[in-house]
Design a protein that fits this description.
The chain is mainly α and 103 residues long. Helices cover 63% and strands 0% of the residues. The protein has helices at residues 22-41, 48-68, 72-95. The N and C termini lie far apart (66 Å).
Length: 103
């Protein structure tokens, strides 16, 4: 049982299999940042362009990251980012959409 006392130092923070996943971690980070931006800016009616576009791109990166993710930790973060991106996207669409007020 000595192996249970050793910390897992190999790989990335979100990898539970001991291997590094730089592509998945990058997509996770981008999705989380876009999700936070979309969610926060969706609370302001005049920022609907930013919230809808950030949400749309966050949904796309989160979906692709979820397709290629290899560990449960990565998938958990991606689902959080996808949810925030989707809420921001839908509220941004309700406030004016992707091109509202430009045409």
């Amino acid at each position: 049982m000595a192996q249970t006392l050793r910390p897992n130092t190999a790989g990335s923070l979100f990898a539970t299999d001991g291997k590094g996943h730089p592509m998945q971690d990058a997509l996770l980070g981008v999705t989380l940042v876009l999700g936070v931006v979309a969610f926060v800016t969706a609370m302001f009616h005049n920022l609907h362009l930013l919230s809808s576009w950030a949400g749309l791109v966050g949904i796309a990166t989160g979906t692709w990251g979820h397709v290629i993710s290899e560990t449960t930790r990565e998938r958990f973060g991606l689902i959080l980012g996808l949810g925030a991106s989707a809420i921001g996207f839908f509220l941004g669409m309700a406030h004016g959409g992707l091109f509202g007020g430009l045409w």
